[in-house]
């Protein structure tokens, strides 16, 4: 069934805002025509829930998380930006390996599988993922997926 991408993302943003309560403020913005697209809801849920849960898990309380969707020129760009602990440069090339966790996670719990799963979901969808991060400043994850309207 055709997916209303704007509503879909907005609902996920709402769910994560409810989940974190007053600990974080999650903003959601959308640009471009994002309706009636052909995307797999489960893959998309897998991608976005992992990125948003990382943003929540690895950032201080309170802080802002920015979630943006942009549909343009046949590409959907999903961006999740946090003001968290960031990822040391030396760890950044390993993030898609199963069980890999960066050296600065401290006591924050995790299996190190989330981004490995996300990478596979993005690949299945013919998309790309990019992670930019500075330690103690924050992390921006950008996923681009080809857009097919139905
Ligand atoms: P889980 O399998 O429960 O998701 P995880 O969060 O540790 O465990 P990934 O989501 O795969 O595993 O992330 C891998 C590592 O990348 C994390 O352990 C953390 O070191 C780093 N990381 C991922 N996202 C962020 C983020 N937004 N800010 C800071 N570090 C991050
Ligand atoms: Mg994770």
Question: What can you see in these coordinates?
Answer:
This protein has 150 residues and is an alpha+beta fold. It is built from 3 helices and 5 strands, in the order αβαββαββ. The protein has helices at 5-20, 41-57, 114-124, and strands at 24-32, 63-72, 75-82, 128-134, 138-146. A 5-stranded mixed β-sheet has the order 1-2-3-5-4, covered by helices on one side. A hairpin with a 2-residue loop joins strand 2 and strand 3 (75-82). The longest helix has 17 residues, at 41-57. It is globular. The mean pLDDT is 97.
Give a short summary of the structure.
It comes from Halotia branconii CENA392. The protein is an alpha+beta fold and 150 residues long.
- Hetero groups: adenosine-5'-triphosphate, magnesium ion
Kindly report the oligomeric state of this protein: single chain
The string of secondary-structure elements, in order, is HEHEEHEE
Strand residue percentage: 25-35%
Give start-end ranges of low-pLDDT stretches.
none
Distance between the termini: 9 Å
Percent of residues in helices comes to 25-40%
The number of helices is 3
Structural class: alpha+beta
């Amino acid at each position: 069934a055709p997916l209303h991408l704007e509503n879909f993302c907005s609902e996920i943003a709402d769910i994560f805002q409810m989940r974190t309560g007053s600990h974080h403020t999650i903003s959601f913005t959308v640009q471009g025509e994002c309706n009636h697209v052909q995307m797999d809801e489960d893959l998309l849920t897998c991608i976005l829930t992992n990125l948003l849960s990382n943003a929540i898990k690895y950032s201080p309380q309170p802080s802002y998380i920015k979630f943006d969707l942009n549909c343009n020129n046949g590409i959907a760009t999903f961006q999740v930006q946090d003001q968290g602990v960031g990822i040391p440069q030396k760890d950044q090339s390993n993030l898609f390996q199963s069980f890999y966790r960066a050296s600065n996670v401290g006591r924050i719990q995790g299996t190190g599988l989330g981004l490995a799963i996300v990478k596979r979901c993005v690949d299945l969808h013919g998309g790309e993922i990019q992670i930019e991060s500075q330690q103690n400043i924050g992390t921006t994850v950008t996923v681009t997926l080809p857009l097919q309207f139905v």
